[in-house]
Amino acid sequence: MTTIVCVAGARPNYMKIKPVMDALEARGAHVVLVHTGQHYDEAMNGVFFRDLGLRPPDRFLGVGSGSHAEQTGRVMTAFEPLLAEIAPDAVVVVGDVNSTLACALVTAKAGPLLAHVEAGLRSRDWSMPEEVNRVATDRVSDYLLAPSPDAVANLRAEGYRPDQVHLVGNVMIDTLLANLDRARGSDVLTRYGLTPGEYGLVTLHRPANVDDPHVLGGLLKALGEIAARLPLVLPVHPRAAGKLADLGVPGGVRLVPPAGYLDFIALQDRARIVLTDSGGVQEETTALGVPCVTLRDNTERPVTVEEGTNVLAGRDPERVVAVAEAVLHRPPAPRRPELWDGRAGERIADLLLAGGTARTRRRPTDAPAG
Ligand code: UD1
Ligand code: UDP
């Protein structure tokens, strides 16, 4: 039997790994779910297991918070002996968090084949820790599983071989589509006194936006101006909680705890506009056809701008307000990118189970040209 280790550790990982695990198990693979413990609060972690119907982790590394080096190092130190003990045929990592890179580096030296789900995304912004994690994870992966044609183009331009790169679609949208009816049954709007189509939803957690009080203050000023015409609700990421409390938020902006998955999908689905610096939220709003204003200067997900509902606003307060007003006045037409169809997990499982294992498939030794 093929044994595959699936890694998750932080909020955006759970919805990405679930459809891959389900499809692998449906095809008879033995899946071992390893949770690194990068996120651990009930609101950042536990609620997703319940909402998504994800089984409890088979192994828990319990690394917790720390600097990049501390966190990455703790995951590597804990994952290495585990991998030796389990001796899987392959390891699947998702996304771009520190847990992703840490487990990728250990796997690359240990022997099992490594599959990266969400390969090829590039912001080209090296100040983002996620950009370092993405590029380095791709470099040591055997299977580069790309969500969109732009990601394939990036990988080809970097010199990866065609047989490593696979356009599989977007696993996050698998989970969104599988749970949309349940999310629409959430009572979160009633609990927060929100009227469908008459509020905006905000998330902020990128270090570039929330760590510097000057930048965060400017964004809050912009949100205050938008809130003068449309009430805003902001589920607070723990990274931003202290700074938001110190700065105080303008009237019309309501802070609420981080939302569970079903509640958050319901909040996106019924929002008139979403303002965010999240990666996954840019994708989910595109799939839902809800206008999204991204509070960043760049995006590693350009397909959501070119073939979705996303508009890049940057972080200058005046520009953010102008872009939000333009979007409220003339919302982008809903469109959905190719292969964001709810079947990415199945395509990934088919590839992984057809491709042989570390024991039967020679690991490529030729380096990328780029
Ligand atoms: C991490 C990811 C980021 C992802 C985000 C999703 C990296 C480098 N960053 O950022 O790509 O978009 O998760 O949400 O991997 N904290 C809690 N409770 C928790 C988890 C964290 O209070 O359950 C607080 C701690 O103070 C911690 C801080 O949040 O120091 C940051 O957590 P960390 O996992 O280091 O980075 P995120 O900002 O969450
Ligand atoms: N999300 C959630 N509750 C929230 C904010 C986000 O359930 O309060 C979900 C969101 O629907 C998406 C994922 O978390 O599925 C995105 O994670 P996050 O924004 O933390 O990370 P990123 O995608 O930026 O790495």
UniProtKB/TrEMBL annotation:
EC number of this enzyme: 5.1.3.14
Top-level lineage group: Bacteria
Domain UDP-N-acetylglucosamine 2-epimerase, chain residue ranges per copy: 24-352
Pfam family, one: Epimerase_2
Keyword terms: Isomerase
Entry protein name: UDP-N-acetylglucosamine 2-epimerase (Non-hydrolyzing)
EC category: isomerase
A GO molecular function held by the record: UDP-N-acetylglucosamine 2-epimerase activity
Family to which this protein belongs: Belongs to the UDP-N-acetylglucosamine 2-epimerase family.
